[in-house]
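Hi again,

Forgot to attach this to my earlier email, sorry! This is the prediction with zinc ion bound. I've pasted everything inline since the attachment limit keeps bouncing my files.
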Amino acid sequence: MADFLTLGIESSCDETSAAVVANGRKLLSNVISSSLELHKAYGGVVPEIASRKHLEFIVPVIDSALKEAGTSLERINAIGVTFGPGLVGGLLVGLMAAKGLAYAAGKPLVGVHHLEGHISANFLESPDLEPPFMTLVASGGHSHIVLVEDYGKYKILGRTRDDAAGEAYDKVSRALGLGYPGGPAIDKAAKSGDPGYIAFPRTRFKDSYDFSFSGIKTAVLNHLNSLKMAEKDIPVNDICASFQEAVCGVLCDNTFRAARDTGMKTVVLAGGVAANSKLRELFEQTASKRGMRLEKPSRILCTDNGAMIAAAAYYAYKKGRISDMTLNAEATYSLDDM
Ligand code: KG4
Ligand code: ZN
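Structure tokens for the complex follow:
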């Protein structure tokens, strides 16, 4: 039987990306064009600049994705697109492109939730991964513990009550003068730091898998201020290593606790923060200690990309989830509501 090809389009933040995936599992192309460099001077993503760049990139990126996959729009079986959550201006650009192509070529349109995309990145590299499994989705905007009961069926068991993990990385990085995005910068600095330099607070809630990262962020800021007041040197690498130790520790503890309590034997990492080396190491160690299976996407598939959207769209389509032309951009939308 001929392969079922999905074209995936992602434009929810600062990456304009398109990809072609065969049968929800095989990556044929994944083209990513990022406006990240333009945002660095502002210390974070500027929605207006991101939208303009999406407009510029969207058509060439889709063209390249089709070309690199050695296919054409005629051969595509369904078009998946991120409808939310994210920056509305960016989402609209991807949505308009996807709707236009779907309408012109007579292809089914599938609206994909951004976090469902992140989770589905794992299907691309782990051919035998099947639900159910426990997932940690940690990105710049979200930190969720999600029980994936079946394809397209999600139950959020824990979430952050304030900052997302990636957001905490970005804020602490800014305070340390390491720039934006903070995750990769802190990850790198922490490699030559002492994780035992200071025990930053690890917030836990009774009878809950929820997170809170605003306390640790404040603790880092207070520590920095006290060093500055005392005119002491700032051990940036040690602070990064200690911050990372605490954040990753809580992410790992809560995820494995949720897996244990629900009887899950497989744990999956997803989202931009899943690119973090400490987090990957900690999850690997914990899984192996408990005799559990761990899956994590390669780093390029952790951060935003079209391939994860194409993979998610395949399974959504197979379940009959087809969108019509009224599909709209949603700045906020819970995964629970899919
Ligand atoms: O998933 P993503 O690309 O975009 C969103 O959906 O938000 O995630 C971006 C976030 C940023 O906060 C960034 O600092 C963080 O992921 N990030 C990392 C690493 N690489 C990216 N955080 C920790 N360690 C990393 N290596
Ligand atoms: Zn993302």
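The mean pLDDT is 97. The radius of gyration is 20 Å.

That should be everything now.

G.
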